[in-house]
């Protein structure tokens, strides 16, 4: 089976649409590691697409806060303002769908899916020391996670944990062969709000039979997404940051 793995779409329809078009024909199922909404101006088109196309979805922290499952006191003022805006913008059906999303980690075939860390859906896995601890919680040799908006992840190679290097900025795809002797925590990166310095939409395609993972970066209509944010009552910084991927 070939899976398209997406995460942290954050209501960016232009980015999600570009990823779907670029990856068309390269996958049979879509998996989402959470944060469908929050920050961007298109929560309903994004949620409609996820409802229609994603077989497995775990919830993210913004999914809880944008649908009233969580308070907003943990958010910075920009995230809080975006969450309040999203609460009003979401249709009742889409809000109900997001509220019903399961908490990770979920077991899917030969891998797991989680938003943050395998031991805590809200934890950020940033450095290899946190990752080393997290590997102890894996029930499969491959886990997909998001939350940090940084494409890449970590490899457990028996004696050590390595950070997977970022793919070159002039490449659209980058292949990683899965060694059955190692374990992998793979971050597809953020579709809708990358924070790794590459503003292109990020995703991953995983071929579970061939044991090949492909990191993907896709150019999209950033000015269009920015325009919609600026024309709504969302904080302007949410538009600005899309251009730099920070
Ligand atoms: Zn996120």
Polypeptide structure, described:
The protein is α/β, with parallel strands linked by helices and 246 residues long. It has one domain: 4-Layer Sandwich (Purple Acid Phosphatase, chain A, domain 2). It has 8 helices and 12 strands. It has helices spanning 13-23, 43-53, 61-65, 77-89, 92-99, 128-135, 222-231, 237-244; strands at residues 2-6, 29-32, 54-57, 106-108, 111-113, 142-144, 152-157, 160-163, 173-177, 183-187, 201-207, 212-218. The strands form 2 sheets. A 6-stranded mixed sheet has the order 3-2-1-11-12-9. The protein has a 6-stranded mixed sheet with strand order 4-5-6-10-7-8, covered by helices on one side. A hairpin with a 4-residue loop joins strand 11 and strand 12 (212-218). Helix 7 (222-231) runs antiparallel to helix 8 (237-244). The radius of gyration is 17 Å and the shape is globular. The mean pLDDT is 96. The chain binds zinc ion.
Compose a concise summary of this entry.
The protein has 246 residues and is an alpha/beta fold. It contains 8 helices and 12 strands.
Major beta-sheet overview: 6 strands, mixed
* Rg: 17 Å
Strand order of the largest sheet: 3-2-1-11-12-9
CATH architecture classification name: 4-Layer Sandwich
The percentage helix is 25-40%
The total tally of domains equals 1
Q: Uncertain regions: pLDDT < 50 for 5+ in a row?
A: none
SSE class = alpha/beta
CATH-derived topology: Purple Acid Phosphatase, chain A, domain 2
Mean pLDDT: 96
Q: SSE order, as H and E? A: EHEHEHHHEEHEEEEEEEHH
Q: What's the β-strand tally? A: 12
Distinct compounds present: zinc ion
* Shape assignment: globular
What proportion strand?
15-25%
């Amino acid at each position: 089976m070939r899976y398209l793995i997406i995460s942290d779409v954050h209501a960016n329809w232009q980015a999600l649409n570009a990823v779907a078009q670029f990856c068309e024909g390269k996958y049979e199922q879509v998996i989402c590691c959470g944060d469908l909404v929050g920050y961007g101006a298109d929560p309903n088109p994004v949620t409609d697409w996820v409802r229609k196309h994603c077989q497995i979805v775990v919830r993210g922290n913004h999914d809880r806060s944008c649908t009233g499952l969580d308070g907003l006191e943990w958010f910075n003022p920009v995230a809080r303002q975006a969450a309040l805006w999203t609460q009003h913008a979401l249709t009742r059906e889409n809000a109900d769908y997001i509220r019903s999303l399961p908490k990770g980690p979920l077991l899917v075939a030969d891998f797991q899916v989680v938003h943050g860390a395998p031991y805590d859906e809200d934890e950020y896995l940033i450095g290899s020391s946190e990752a080393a601890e997290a590997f102890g919680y894996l029930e499969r040799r491959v886990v997909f996670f998001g939350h940090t908006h940084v494409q890449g992840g970590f490899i457990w190679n028996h004696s050590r944990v390595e950070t997977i290097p970022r793919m070159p900025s002039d490449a659209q795809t980058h292949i990683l062969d899965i060694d059955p002797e190692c374990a992998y925590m793979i971050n597809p990166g953020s579709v809708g709000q990358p924070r790794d310095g590459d503003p292109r939409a990020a995703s991953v395609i995983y071929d579970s039979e061939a044991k090949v993972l492909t990191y993907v970066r896709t150019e999209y209509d950033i000015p269009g997404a920015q325009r919609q944010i600026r024309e709504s009552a969302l904080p302007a910084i949410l538009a600005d940051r899309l251009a730099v991927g920070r």
